[in-house]
From TrEMBL:
Residues 220-286 form the ASPIC/UnbV domain. Residues 328-376 form the FlgD/Vpr Ig-like domain. Gene3D superfamilies: 2.60.40.4070, Integrin alpha, N-terminal. Keywords: Signal. It comes from candidate division WOR-3 bacterium. InterPro entries: Crtac1, FG-GAP, FlgD/Vpr_Ig-like, Integrin_alpha_N, UnbV_ASPIC. This is ASPIC/UnbV domain-containing protein.
Length: 395
């Protein structure tokens, strides 16, 4: 099926990872290639075929890559990408998802380059502050733990946190082995004793989610989870593997900082079923079951209410988050329009599943020009529903 799917690649591939980078509900494929071959991003067309969009997306790194990791480090509800390169003279690369099918190299400004002989990486919230941190394993030299400062930058803290192992790390996994709500770390080393690091924790809150599928695959691989708690948002996917020779616990973990309840949790199963939970407690593990039928199923206290809004508001646009809630599936178009109703930017047109959707917008129009300050509307027009949310841009 490889040729028919359009996945023909004759390079030295070190790792392959699935991630829905454009939020269309279909997993896309990123290949990390060695021998200075360009990495490849294949966009899933939703019909059994794929398109090579490496050039237009801007993620064709040629640094002798050994692995990569998808994760939403900036909490704008789309997947960013970290690429691990395997020679000391090639830096690792962080690509921020712009929300429009393209990525920007923000490695230097984020502070996560790491010129060591990289081997693997994983995104995890080790301190439960609501922001994904980054752990990078190296084959020679100490491993790195980059703490997410919540402002687009990171601080390297592996030594102070006690996880700067200096041997050869072959693989590693994060999981809450003792059930205290904080992720612990296990290192598989080469020719040395493996190591278990217990996370000593702090006062931050957390939620863990154990999935119980009945229609989807037995491990719920490919399930998307979205969490909303005040100004904290969280995006997670259940993955069959991450980094290199590694896989985290299948129990999904969210750090919540000082939040004492969860407004909503949305679970999008591979079967197409959506489960929505409202008003959840914290510092606990919950089990979420898949619906008993192939139709949409929601475990909720009240029906979904139509909603569209922009966060923050007003916004000094570098990346605005647009939330859209649909009580039923719709064919429609989501756009940014000005006060005269003229379309400024089309964000998406086509099929929208029932439930909550999140889109990021970089403040540019359809031609790629920054829009001036003023009043605008996030506008959704479907066959049965029209929603409009007012917001202000400050330049």
């Amino acid at each position: 099926m490889t040729d028919e799917a359009g996945l023909i690649d004759y390079t030295w591939t070190s790792a392959a990872l699935w991630g829905d980078y454009n939020n269309d509900g279909y997993p896309d494929l990123y290949l990390a290639n060695a021998h200075s071959e360009a990495n490849i991003l294949y966009r899933n067309n939703g019909d059994g075929t794929f398109t090579d969009v490496t050039g237009s997306a801007g993620v064709g790194n040629t640094g002798w890559s050994r692995s990569a990791a998808w994760g939403d480090y900036d909490n704008d509800m789309d997947l960013d990408l970290y690429v691990v390169n395997g020679w000391a003279d090639t830096r690792n690369v962080l690509y921020r998802n712009n929300g429009d099918g393209t990525f920007t190299d923000v490695t230097d400004q984020a502070g996560v380059s790491d010129l060591s002989d990289g081997y693997g990486a994983m995104w995890i919230d080790y301190d439960n502050d609501g922001y994904l941190d980054l752990y990078v394993s190296n084959f020679y030299g100490p491993n790195k733990l980059f703490h997410n400062n919540g402002d687009g930058t990171f601080t390297e803290v592996a030594m102070s946190e006690g996880v700067a192992f200096e041997g050869n790390t072959d693989g590693f996994a994060w999981g809450d082995y003792n059930g205290d709500g904080f992720l612990d770390l296990y290192l598989a080393t080469l020719n040395e004793t493996n190591i278990l690091y217990k996370n000593l924790g702090n006062d931050n809150h957390w939620l863990e989610v154990k999935l119980s599928p009945s229609i989807s695959n037995a491990s719920a691989i490919g399930t998307r989870l979205e969490l909303y708690s005040g100004d904290i948002t969280g995006l997670r996917f259940v993955e069959g593997g991450m980094g290199r020779f590694s896989q985290n616990s299948l129990i999904v973990h969210f750090g919540l900082g000082d939040k004492t309840h969860v407004d909503s949790l949305l679970v999008f199963w591979p079967s197409g079923i959506t489960t929505v939970l409202y008003d959840l407690g914290v510092d606990t593990m919950i089990t979420v079951s898949e619906g008993p039928t192939g139709v949409e199923h929601r475990s909720i206290k009240s029906p979904l209410r139509p909603y569209i809004g922009v966060l923050p508001n007003p916004v000094d646009v570098t990346s605005a988050l647009i939330k859209l809630v649909l009580p039923a599936a719709e064919n429609g178009r989501l756009s940014i329009v000005d006060v005269a109703g003229r379309k400024v930017r089309e964000l998406r047109e086509g099929y929208f599943r029932a439930g909550l959707h999140s889109f990021s917008w970089n403040g540019k129009d359809d031609l790629g020009n920054p829009v001036p300050g003023g009043v605008y509307f996030a506008d959704f027009k479907g066959k049965k529903l029209h929603l409009s949310g007012k917001f202000t841009i400050i330049r």
